[in-house]
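User: Structure with guanine, tokens only please.
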Amino acid sequence: MPNTLAEINSLDRGAFTAALGHLFEHSPWVAEETWPQRPFRDVTQLQAALCATMRGAPRERQLALIRAHPDLAGRLAQQNKLTLESTREQASAGLNQLSAEELAGFQKLNAAYLGRFGFPFIICARLSNKSAILAAMQARIGNSAEGELATALGEIEKIAQLRLNDLLKPK
Ligand code: GUN
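Assistant:
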């Protein structure tokens, strides 16, 4: 995997998409459609360009991106069927160590949130922890769908930024 900006700037469309496709969950189109803008001057510009691609996509595509995220402490997590990144993100918030009661609480709120908005609850798990996530779920479920869509995209940008930082970390 490339781990410098110079290497990333030198990749062809397919290799660029392979290297950065995972930054947006199950949505390599974000990287692919950003590729023509290279070379990127710095990592900030690369991240901004990726986010602009996401923001410029049609609403249906943004919704599909949001819906590509697994529930926090959801069924896929219980079955160990998450992507590597998602597994790490959920673990970093302590969601892999919930009591049966806590798990039931998450599942109830996940279902209520999905039922209300038609997309899963998105928060950047690595910048949070289980009690803050539960509190945010309870608070945000009262918001408008428009507001939650905007919040979800903002959280997805934070998730992508941290994944990009990981990619570029000296190994
Ligand atoms: N669903 C809600 N939050 C997150 C997150 O931080 N990472 C992933 N992969 N899925 C989520």
